[in-house]
TrEMBL record:
Protein name: SRPBCC family protein
Organism: Halobacillus kuroshimensis
InterPro entries the record matches: START-like_dom_sf
Domain of life of the native organism: Bacteria
Length: 151
């Protein structure tokens, strides 16, 4: 199973970064390239432990839906979401927030399993892992820019 780890330093207090990462509106803003929006479950505000959200977006030219659930939360340092329903066989996305003197280190760890067995593993190597890495990085940059724009 591929594991993608991305580190992003944000000059903002840990609670603000944690809340921003749980914001449905900021998630939507960070996914403009895929036209992703919340269409089910919690569709606005901050997600909480136990919440589900269904995202709809266009990936690889195909409109897709994915439902994720927040399975654990230790505010303001960690939360974990997993896929309940969607195109992946499975995924777990762990969000860690490490308080630093000048701000917060946000660490995304995304572990997923593609569908379709060997074809899915081939897709991982050819393009999917790069695509998912780029999405995580873009999302982190949007959060950073939003949180640092007034500071």
């Amino acid at each position: 199973m591929p594991e993608i780890i991305h580190h992003q330093f944000i000059k903002s207090p840990v609670q603000q970064v944690f809340d921003a990462a749980l914001s449905v509106e900021l998630h939507t803003k960070s996914m403009t390239q895929t036209k992703e929006k919340a269409v089910g479950g919690v569709t606005e505000g901050l997600l909480e432990e136990g919440d589900t959200v269904t995202w709809e977006g266009v990936h690889f030219g195909v409109r897709q839906r994915l439902t994720a659930r927040i399975v654990s939360m230790q505010a303001p340092h960690r939360f974990v979401d997993v896929m309940d329903k969607g195109v992946f066989h499975s995924f777990t996305h762990t969000h860690d927030f490490i308080e630093k003197a000048e701000g917060t280190l946000m660490v995304d760890t995304f572990v997923y399993q593609s569908p379709l067995g060997i074809l899915g593993r081939l897709a991982d190597r050819l393009f999917l892992e790069k695509y998912m890495t780029r999405m995580l990085k873009n999302r982190a940059v949007v959060l950073k820019n939003e949180l640092e724009k007034d500071g």
